[in-house]
Amino acid sequence: MAAEVHAATALDERTDAFGAVYADNYQLLVSTAIKHYHISELDAESLAHEVFLAYFLKASEIENSRAWLISALCNATKYFLRTRARHVPLAEESGEIVDPSLEDFHDALPNSMVAREAFGCVSAKCQIALRLRYLEGYSVPEVATELNTSAKYAQKLIGKCLRQARNRYQKRGEP
């Protein structure tokens, strides 16, 4: 009977400690996933709960809770984004207007190693827009949603970024 009471007390203490860690770090994890990885709040909350479940199972082995939680969240979010990128269907023909001078560059961009080097030549906002559109297969309205802007501006931004990438990449002496 004493062993049962001791086990119940230990479980209560573990639960209380977990509750304190959860309360202190939940909002941090959710906001980190949203701000740094540009995912929805619902997905961020799901990932945070997965991380806390893993933490609960390994809490006795972890020395620095906050660092472990943030690292686990970053790893879980990266895995989530890689998995989602594989399962996002390519956009249907949306009637996008493509600048004819960019057609060759546009067709070669997602299928070549040139893409990574060209992406390195543009601003961070352009990198995000081009990555979402061409590497992750988002439609223009989805890119607009991710960038918190209108679809018309997103389309204009993507075109501008493609021109910027082409021009800067070609100035480096590449074909």
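[next item in queue]
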Amino acid sequence: MKKTMVFSLLLTVSIICGCRHFFDYPFFTVKESGLNWIAIRHYNFRTTPMQRVSVRVDGNGLVTVREGTSILVTNPFAASHTDANWNDIRENRITVPREEIVPMFQMLVDAGLFKERRKGDSSNTNEAIFVSANIQAKTCGSEDDVYGSDPELAEHLKNIVLMFYRPQPVRKR
């Protein structure tokens, strides 16, 4: 009886450990879903005040692009409303066919979006890029500049930002 119990326990543990690798595998096939999304935040340090761009691409084809020097561009829950740049924010929404979103998400997955990365020194001091995503119920988020940990992925992310970001002239008051 004890041998059977021990065997079943070992079998259960080995199955769970074997499945864990499958669930953590960072490369997978992306399927069309309105629940998939990616949010990319790009900071340009060459300008004063710092220029921010945020691009969120949803699996349903809605792309939201924010730009400006306000902290609200990259953090819609910011509370520092006394900041001099608080009102410098512009937002555009673009609709893209859903079937065009899947290859974009697949390209990012294939580029290693969900790979574990070690923190590295940023090789590009003039800009920084951060990403958060939820694709096929797998999530990721970068606490550190992606240029420092994966410059190739950072370039892919920057290209997506440039696909949708069209600089708008600042209105003088």
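[queue empty]
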